[in-house]
Amino acid sequence: MALGASELRRCGNAVAAEFIANRLAESTTGQDRLMESICAVENRRSARRRVEKNKGAPGVDGVKTTELAGVLNRCWGAIKTSLLDGTYEPMPVRRKSIDKPDGGTRDLGIPVVQDRFVQQAMTQVLTAIYDHTFSDSSFGYRPGRSQAQAVERAREHVQRGANYVVSIDLSKFFDRVNHDRLMSRLAMRIKDKRVLKLIRAFLNSGIQLENNEIAYPGEGTPQGGPLSPLLSNIVLDELDKELEKRGLRFVRYADDIVIFVRSRKAGERVLKSVTRFLQNRMKLEVNNTKSSVELPWNIKFLGFRITQMIGRTRLSIHPKALESFKDKVREITRRSRGVSLAAIIRELNRFIPGWLNYYRIGLSKKLIQKLNRWIVRRLRAFHWEQWKLPRTKVRNLKKLGLSHTDAVMLGNTRKGAWHVSKYQSMNYALPAKWFVKNYGLIRLR
Fold it and tell me: What is the Cα–Cα distance from 109 to 111, expressed in whole angstroms?
């Protein structure tokens, strides 16, 4: 029988609901009525909360996530009917290009909020069916797993004797997923034809281009919707199983793949054979210019690198990732922006916690202190530039505790803001704690 609303209410939370969905989906009867599990009360409540929490830009219809509750109150009956009878038709996704940290752009496909909700409801049930079948070496887009665990597993492989790392870069993976191969893999476990038909409809829903024309690429699963990460894991699980069958040690986070070997010769052999498997068997394209066999400390994996000292390995932030952080701070604290210091610090406070949470495992005490001093120096230079006139600078420096003589000497200097920001007297007038106390600056810890 289908997953009933009363059964789900007794569960008390979405995790338990997914567990029941998993049990029923494993049975023949549950598989045939999987769409009923997707439409169940607790599952859709959890999906709505998740979409609202994730926020995100509106799709082609302009409806915001804050309007989702109203849409469902008015239209859920019709939406549910179309899902259950297999007639639901998704709208095209809106293309949005974003800059990649290492250059180039990434194309996102932003579904309308209603489609995002339906995808989220599907993802919750399908995750319960698929997640336990995935490889232990897969970490991306999986509940209870994180990038920190992925890079730590990579470090462990190097610690245990892997002298070389094979890094494989898939060229525009999300844009090149073969629909027929994906649907074939889905049909192995999903027996409810309505669910398969709906997934196919999402894959074929089209992309609204910047000129408002609708394109139908015929391949790919655009990033931006809740369903795409799960579908990508289902596609790449085939690679995971092949690597396991070959007895290779590897870590995969979404389409970032690193394989650990003992010699360069073995690495070159693995790179060649895995590339052949991906291109000939899985119909995916490998970027040969970005795929390589390197020493561990030369590889950038999820923004980190693995270094070795006296027989021990540790994680550190890759120089490119660190420079990307500095570029973002430079952009926020640019002295020509024409906004207040309070606005600058609010923007920093939105950026720093997320970055810190991601890179915490690669931060040393020495690096934290160095970055904190650099950020405060950027703020001093910004604040100095705001004072403009020498008399304003002298007056403000005296208010901040400098003597009249020191304030006059510093306030009338012809040196630039960045040069002045390193002076000892500026450190005395505008110490780090001044920005913390007066503006709530969040510091790296």
Answer: 6
14, 51 contact by CB (below 8 A): no
Q: Looking at beta carbons, which pairs linking 203-208 to residues 24 or more positions away fall under 8 Å?
A: 203/179, 204/179, 205/90, 205/91, 205/92, 205/93, 205/111, 205/115, 206/92, 206/93, 207/92, 207/93, 207/94, 207/95, 207/109, 208/60, 208/92, 208/93, 208/94, 208/95
| Measured distance CA(251)–CA(160) in Å, rounded | 14
Q: What is the pLDDT of residues 216-239, one digit of tens each?
A: 888 888 888 899 999 999 999 999
Of 56, 175, 190, 174, the residue nearest 117 (C-alpha): 56
Strand pairing category for 93-99 and 207-208? parallel
Q: 37 with 25: CB under 8 angstroms? A: yes
Whether 2 shows a pLDDT value over 50: the answer reads no
| Other beta carbons within 10 Å of 415 | 11
Rounded Cα distance, 281 and 195, in Å: 26
Tens digits of residue pLDDT in 358-382: 999 999 999 999 999 999 999 999 9
**pLDDT per position as a tens digit, 68-122:** 999 999 999 999 999 999 999 999 999 887 776 666 677 788 999 999 999 999 9
User: Across-strand partners of 314?
Assistant: 307
Is there a contact between 233 and 133 (Cβ–Cβ < 8 Å)?
no
Q: Among residues 39, 68, 30, which one has the least CA distance to residue 51?
A: 68
Burial class from Cβ neighbours inside 10 Å (0-12, 13-18, 19+) for residue 231 reads: buried
Phi, psi for residue 315 in degrees, rounded to 5: -100, 140
Q: What is the pLDDT of residues 324-335, one digit of tens each?
A: 999 999 999 999
Whole-angstrom distance, CA of residue 375 vs CA of residue 381 = 10
Q: What are the backbone dihedrals phi and psi of residue 58, each rounded to the nearest 5 degrees, phi first?
A: -70, 160
* CA separation for the pair 68, 56 (Å, rounded): 12
Q: Express each pLDDT in 135-144 by its tens digit.
A: 999 999 999 9
Three-state DSSP state, 310: coil
DSSP category for residue 67: G
CA distances from 63 to 105, 134, 348, 440 (A): 26, 35, 29, 34
For residue 123, give the nearest of 179, 33, 199, 191 by alpha carbon. Answer: 199
